[in-house]
Each structure stands twice: as structure tokens, then as C-alpha cells.
Amino acid sequence: MGRVSELDPEDAKIITLARSTRARAGSAEGAAVRDETGRTYAAATVELPSLRLTALQVAVAMAVSSGAESLEAAAVVTEDGTPDVAAVRDLAAKAPVLVAGLDGAVRAVLTD
């Protein structure tokens, strides 16, 4: 996989959203998802004394709370290893999850 500019434009968009959300929030991780209608939702990690959610969990929760019934794709921008994709799989068993570094280069595409 390559940089954001080499991807399908819709996939590049969710990586760009994840990167910008991560940077704006000053978080270690950013994520974005695209629902079945093409709407996108971006989020950063939530770390409060009483609540800890990954960026991907927050993005999925935002989509569901807005009425999404399925996901087409997801992206996570992180320096860490493989993200937990369970929340994505709750809505879409085979939706690709693009895992990118902070520079936007895709390191992996998780499909199951």
C-alpha cells in the first residue's frame, strides 16, 4: 500500500480525516469511518478518568448514533500496532480497515 494520494479517493479522504482529527486533538490515534450512505465520521481517542475509548470506537459510535446501519470502510492513523476492529466488525464483517502511520502511508488493510 502507498501514500494517501495513491488510494481510491474515498479511502484517501477517511485517512486524511483521521490524520487531521488526530493532529487537532493532540491524540496518539485518529480514526474515520464511512457509512453505507457515504457519510463520514472522524474521531480521536478519548482518555478520561472514567472512560477510555479508541478513536475507532468513537468514530463507530458517532456513525451509529447518527443512524448508520453499516460501514463501507474505516481508517486508523496510529504509531501503535494493529488496532482493535471489533466495533467495525459489529456493523460490517468484511469492511476494510486501513491502518496508516502518522505520515498517511498505509501499513495494512484489515478485512476480517
Notes on the structure:
By secondary structure, the chain is of the alpha+beta class. It has one domain (4-110): Cytidine Deaminase, domain 2 (3-Layer(aba) Sandwich), CATH 3.40.140. It is built from 3 helices and 7 strands; from the N terminus they run αββββαβαββ. It has helices at 9-25, 55-65, 86-91; strands at residues 29-35, 40-44, 46-48, 51-53, 71-78, 97-100, 106-110. The longest helix is centred in the N-terminal third of the chain and has 17 residues, at 9-25. The radius of gyration is 12 Å and the shape is globular. The two termini are 17 Å apart.
Briefly note the structural class of the backbone: alpha+beta
| CATH H level, superfamily name | Cytidine Deaminase, domain 2
Rounded to the nearest angstrom, the distance between the terminal CA atoms is 17 Å
Say what the CATH topology is. Cytidine Deaminase, domain 2
Q: Which CATH class?
A: Alpha Beta
Number of helices: 3
Radius of gyration: 12 Å
pLDDT averaged residue by residue = 93
What secondary-structure arrangement, pairings included, does this model have?
Elements lengths: L8 H17 L3 E7 L4 E5 L1 E3 L2 E3 L1 H11 L5 E8 L7 H6 L5 E4 L5 E5 L2
Features:
Cytidine Deaminase, domain 2, five-stranded mixed β-sheet, 31% strand, 3 helices, two-stranded antiparallel ribbon, 30% helix, 112 residues
